Amino acid sequence: MSITVLIADDQAMVRQGFGALLAAQSDISVVGDAPNGKIAVAEAKRLRPDVVLMDVRMPEMNGLDAARAILAAGFDPPVRVLMLTTFDIDDYVYEALSLGASGFLLKDAPADELVRAVRVVAEGQALLAPTVTRRLIADVMRRRAQPKPAPALGALTPREREVLELIARGMSNTEIAETLFVAEQTVKTHVSKVFSKLNLRDRAQAVVLAYESGLVTPG
Predict the structure, then answer these.
(1) C-alpha closest to that of 201 among 84, 81, 110, 48
(2) Distance, CA of 10 to chain centre
(3) CA distances from 138 to 4, 94, 130, 170, 171 (A)
(4) What's the pLDDT tens digit per position in 5-24?
């Protein structure tokens, strides 16, 4: 089945360029676009796309507020939000991940990286593996205050804490399985338990919590 995408950006050339690139893929269909956050929310509710490419800086309603509204709507199946950003707004990126955005991508990323990002997010994964993502998260946390206490981590078993740490380092389930020398299904079970115990929506929120609690430190 085709992955449906809504593109939200206040620059028409960006919408058209991204739209043409994604529409050229056999497994991706661009179902709409929006010039601001307010229209993006309305179109997301109307079209229920698999993925919304959301620029952070837009008029009327910025991308962060629009992402918050879309993610809070609790669509089933879920509408994933992939933030489009630049290096100078790291704090917005951090907040977007906290809200439950599936990840973020630099607006000047290569074409193949954009296509890959849409596919990864559509599959329900967080876009956390690329080096640039780890660097941005690490930089945000380095500039923030001391780690926040996270008593909930005490509910995790040693193995579950280990799995959470590896998630925060950007590893996929397959990579975690290889690292721990266990079956991938075993890793999936651990991940599910971690999410349940910590009341996490997805891997992006798991990464944020791991950094905030000090379980993982930048570098």
Answers:
(1) 81
(2) 21
(3) 31, 10, 13, 12, 15
(4) 999 999 999 999 999 999 99
Please state the length of the chain.
219
Contact between residue 153 and residue 60 where contact means Cβ atoms under 8 Å apart: no
pTM over 0.70: no
Read off the pLDDT of residues 135-157 as tens digits, 9 standing for 90 and up: 555 665 565 555 555 567 888 99
